[in-house]
Amino acid sequence: MSTKVCVVGGGPAGLRAAEAAAAAGAAVWLFDSMPSVGRKFLVAGRGGLNITNTNKCFAEKYTGPGMPAEIWRSLLGDFPPESLRAWAEDLGIKTFSGSGGRIYPQEMKSAPLLRRWITRLRAQGVRFFPRHRWTGWHAGCGRRWWLDFLAPAGETAIDADAAVFALGGGSWPVTGSDGSWLEKFASSGVAVRPLAPANCGWETAWPEDVLRRAEGMPLKNIRARAGATSADGELLVTSYGLEGGVIYQIGPALRTDPVVSLDFKPSFSFDTLMARMPAAEKFHLHEAFERCRIQETARVLLLSRSSQWTSRETFAAGVKGFPIRLERPRPLAEAISSVGGVCWSELDHSLMLRKFPGLFVAGEMVDWEAPTGGYLIQGCFCTGARAGAAAANFK
Ligand SMILES: Cc1cc2nc3c(=O)[nH]c(=O)nc-3n(C[C@H](O)[C@H](O)[C@H](O)COP(=O)(O)OP(=O)(O)OC[C@H]3O[C@@H](n4cnc5c(N)ncnc54)[C@H](O)[C@@H]3O)c2cc1C
Questions:
Q1: Hey, what's the torsion of the CAs at 49, 54, 55, 61, to 10 degrees?
Q2: Is the CB of 361 under 6 A from ligand 1?
Q3: Which ligand 1 atom minimizes the distance to the CA of 168?
Q4: 275 CB contacts (<8 Å, ≥6 apart)?
Q5: What is the dihedral of CA 314, 317, 318, 322, to 10 degrees?
Q6: How far apart are CA 55 and CA 59, in angstroms?
Q7: What domains lie within the chain, and their CATH numbers?
Q8: 142 with 3: CB under 8 angstroms?
Q9: What is the value of pTM for the model shown?
Q10: What's the pLDDT band for 238 if we cut at 50, 70, 90?
């Protein structure tokens, strides 16, 4: 008789785990608390879904406390970005490479891909159980498990030879990923770290004049530094602070020390800026703006501290490093992803919970993080593939 694998959570990690388990010959039942699966995946598709990336240093993008060295090299070795592209093409979804090596489905949406994926999973024999909220587990006879659910007909327990949990992080709870599983795992003795926002905007209290003149305006071609990390690109000044890919990338460092230093002219060195300004006795800020070609939004920010720029030197230093103290990240519910979750120390190489043989985890609920640009979905696919295949082969 084939192994019965229950997958709980129908995001990309759970769907991929179901696919891998079915391909390995298991009978797969997939449960989700929502009326349909893949809701966050659909949200991700609204802004042009990045499914993976062509970056050669892929494994280095993943960080997390206590993460085993080489784990991502191994996960990506089993299911590399090229395999994800081939997988999409096999579903009839063509992909293309955009800026920063980002790989998009041709239609820039996730709905067509998700529809075809579900159809194929059903054809593979995967059975779907929507509106089933997982509430706990307990051991059955032998090495079997009972999983508890709150279903439309009431409480129910389903038995399984092995299970994969892919319950997601804590952002966008409206999609079903509400992070409520964390407490249940913790009370079962699984070490977890609280979920916190990642890939998110940050708040700062702008002076009135900055808000009035710069809200909604971009800072283009800038470099943002935090601690030892930096990122180049674009930022948006918002009513609450700063938003955009650049601040997402340096988020891990900001969580340690929430001060970002903006370089408004990364292509000019300090000396180049100095050379552009006349060595006049009297320093004129507006003339310096013109001579150094400072963009409008940066001018507003620099003007808000104009008393500091009294010389060519102080001005050039301010352009190259404009520090902004941030207050906090935007709320978890708004973030693209979350950090925290099941600690790596709880997992073996197959992503099985050491304390609960036969129970596996995958996707964003594990304590790793990665920047936007396709690394998140790729990470969910890799971990889902490994956990699903291992669950199917669990004896
Ligand atoms: C606006 C936005 C844009 C994004 N864009 C990109 C992008 O372009 N590229 C990229 O790589 N990533 C992107 N992401 C991130 C990506 O969508 C997530 O990292 C990914 O969906 C996580 O997959 P997952 O399978 O781990 O969890 P999820 O997709 O969160 O799925 C978890 C599933 O578990 C179910 N669940 C939760 N609790 C229970 C329970 N108790 N019982 C039963 N079911 C439960 C949920 O209903 C949900 O269906 C984006 C995210 C957002 C919000």
A1: 40
A2: no
A3: 27
A4: none
A5: -150
A6: 9
A7: 4-198+335-392 (3.50.50.60), 202-329 (2.40.30.10)
A8: no
A9: 0.95
A10: very high
